[in-house]
Amino acid sequence: MQWMKKDILDIQSLSVEEIGMILDTAENLKEISQRPIKKVPTLRGKTVILFFHEASTRTRTSFDIAAKRLSADSISISATTSSIVKGETLIDTVKNLEAMNPDIMVIRHACSGVPHMLARQLHFSVINAGDGTHEHPTQALLDMMTVREKKGRLEGLRVAIVGDISHSRVARSNCLGFTKMGASVILSGPPTMIPSGIESFGVSVTYRVEEAIRDADVIMMLRIQKERQGAFSFPSEREYAQLFGLNLKRLEKAKDDVLIMHPGPINRGVEIAPAVADGPFSVILDQVANGVAIRMALLYLVSGGKRNVDTD
Ligand code: CP
Fold it and tell me: Rounded to two decimals, what is the model's pTM?
């Protein structure tokens, strides 16, 4: 199979074969990060712009490291340090950046659909690093890579995603990704944080966290996204932790070989207890390590890809 897509905008538009190809490529490239000299010349002469309109630690840093490990030149800009603060529009900004002839732009934005809008107008590749509450495709890809690495497969697994589903682009991308790859997904959290009709994604819902985690092969805990909530959807963090947080007592009810995941950043003691986040079932830092490999794979694939008419 040859990679044909110019952009990586969402999990929804990726086929099972494309997801498989990304995961296989990432698995092959992962070894580069274990070498004494962690650099190959594959993308020498390519320019990657990291344009983050929202805060990020993991995604921005891992894209930057991924670009450098492949010998691409990476340039990081943010809304607060660009001329957007002087009133320049987003589209004027990226058109000016396009005039400098980059090859790839990685963009995170608080508004859903911004990467798609830019991809239609720009001649270089656009990778979505998280758009509003819509999708975070590279996070779902690194999550699927981590589960496949630890369990040897995705098909037939039961994945519980617990927390603020309504505001989570990670949840949306993972629902689409894991179900596409043959896993079943069960969502849990307060009724105020689970959108009605979410079952149309092919997932099931329970408001009892114990029920979600009982038979799960993977438990993915999500942060409450206070920055996206108009009014808080729960009385207090203490009550949330008691009713929905993953602590050692709740973990006793889970399978013996369960994987505990979290996309980060963690609110310790709220959605996940420190003893669980740092405990033997946690693969949270494996997720972060695999984030570099997945982003190396995406930079590599889109650099060789052609413009995809489907995303036009
Ligand atoms: N998981 C994730 O997107 O983390 P950052 O916000 O730190 O990039």
Answer: 0.94
